[in-house]
Write a structure and sequence with these properties.
283 residues; alpha/beta; 33% helix; disordered N terminus; disordered C terminus; Proteasome assembly chaperone 1; 9-stranded mixed beta sheet; Rossmann fold
Length: 283
């Protein structure tokens, strides 16, 4: 199982390492026998792609329980431009047939425009993408999208987090950066809280950022700590604030009423977790 540690800093220790060799990276992820994923471009997005790929100034990937819900609701204000689906058919004809379908398990991509005209693509990772299929999902994503910058929203269960308990009024969102991101911004950010040494990030969040690191792409991973009962109102609000800052949006631009979006997302998360443990839903 491929894991990577938090952040790359000037004082990188043994636990702050990346797999630079792509073959080793793929082997760690179990590329043999992994699930196959494919990218499909919707007809409505033809004008937005170049060389078979969607072009984005910012690609935002929701890979945590709270962020996938938030981005799904935010995507309702944009245009659906593509999807990543599990390619379970062996024949070319079967693949063509499947690519025309629209399934709830697909990772749908939505395109929005920021106030400055930047092209933004949002995608929520389906809950059913397992660890062994994470690298294939990431490859399918970047097979269909070319992004200037990528932001991934991930999480670590509180029971596995190595660090002091978060006692602040606002939950901390931790940061991991690729080498290209650090080079683009210079020294470590003064308002950035890096993920404490020794913490592991896995799944699609790790796969997407590792894909960017290996290919020298600008990317940031924002990590929240999931409590046992799931993200509460404060955590959803904290993630919303991070999303707003990354998108550089004014709340009126897409006629988005952010408090309503937070409330709707929190209600959605609560209904999903009712009757089941959080680890069962989002492991």
């Amino acid at each position: 199982m491929a894991l990577f540690y938090d952040p790359i800093t000037d004082e990188a220790g043994p636990s702050r390492t990346w797999e630079e060799d792509e073959e080793e990276f793929e082997e760690l992820y179990g590329s043999k026998g992994e699930a196959a994923y494919a990218f499909k471009l919707l007809p409505a997005a033809e004008q937005h792609h170049k060389g078979g790929k969607l072009q984005a100034d910012l690609l935002m990937v929701g890979a945590s329980s709270a962020s996938r819900v938030l981005l799904s609701h935010l995507g309702e204000f944009g245009d659906k431009v593509g999807a990543i689906y599990q390619d379970i058919n062996e024949t070319d004809e079967g693949r063509r047939d499947r690519s025309q379908e629209d399934d709830a398990s697909d990772g749908h991509l939505f395109q929005m425009s920021a106030a400055g005209g930047d092209r933004i693509i949002l995608v929520s990772v389906p809950e059913g993408v397992r660890q062994e299929g994470a690298a294939a999902w990431a490859r399918a994503l970047f097979g269909g999208v070319s992004a200037t910058r990528t932001v991934v929203l991930g999480s670590i269960p509180r029971s596995k987090f190595l660090g002091a308990a978060d006692e602040g009024a606002s939950p901390v969102i931790y940061t991991v950066e690729t080498s290209a991101q650090r080079a683009a911004t210079g020294q470590a950010g003064t308002n950035v809280t890096y993920l404490p040494t020794g913490n592991l990030v896995d799944g699609v969040a790790a796969a997407v950022v590792s894909h960017c690191q290996v290919r020298n792409l600008v990317a940031t991973l924002l990590v929240n700590i999931d409590q046992t009962s799931g993200p509460d109102q404060k955590m959803v609000q904290a993630l919303t604030n991070e999303i707003k800052e990354c998108l550089q949006l004014q709340s009126q631009h897409f006629n988005v009423h952010w408090p309503d979006l937070v409330a709707k997302s929190q209600k959605d998360l609560a209904s999903r977790s009712r009757g089941q443990s959080w680890s069962e839903l989002y492991s």
